[in-house]
Amino acid sequence: MNEPKHDKNQPRTLDNRRKTLYSFGGAYLIYTAVRLWQGYRAADSDMSDLILLLAALAFLLIGLALLAFVAVKSVREYKQFLRDQKEDNKDE
């Protein structure tokens, strides 16, 4: 794959494809966690179900972290875009 070359002084940004992949991955992990939780509540409680519950919790946390990462990164990139645009308008 051809990755775009970045200036070393400029921070790297996430491209839209990567943001979309992280978002879908996070949403899918949350969906999987909910389905595991529903299965845990429907079944009789034993040790294997406890492992499923722990897996559901891990999936939920990782999914939320992925979505939060994309959201924070997107907001930072948007703020930087607005700052750059404001500086360009001052130069003119």
Describe it for me?
This protein has 92 residues and is mainly alpha-helical. The protein is built from two helices and no strands. It has helices at residues 16-42, 47-91. α1 runs antiparallel to α2 (47-91). The longest helix has 45 residues, at 47-91.
Quick synopsis:
The chain has 92 residues and is an all-alpha fold.
Features:
single chain, 92 residues, mainly alpha, 78% helix, 0% strand
Mean pLDDT: 83
- The strand count comes to 0
SS field, number of helical segments: 2
| Quaternary organisation | single chain
Biggest β-sheet strands, sense, barrel = none
Low-confidence stretches: none
The best one-word shape is rod-shaped
Instruction: Assign the structural class, choosing from mainly alpha, mainly beta, alpha/beta, alpha+beta, or little secondary structure.
Output: mainly alpha
Distance between the termini: 38 Å
What is the helix content? over 70%
- Name the helix and strand elements from N-terminus to C-terminus, one letter apiece: HH
Rg, Å, rounded: 20 Å
Strand content: under 5%
Element layout with pairings:
Layout: H1 16-42, H2 47-91
Helix pairs in contact: 1-2
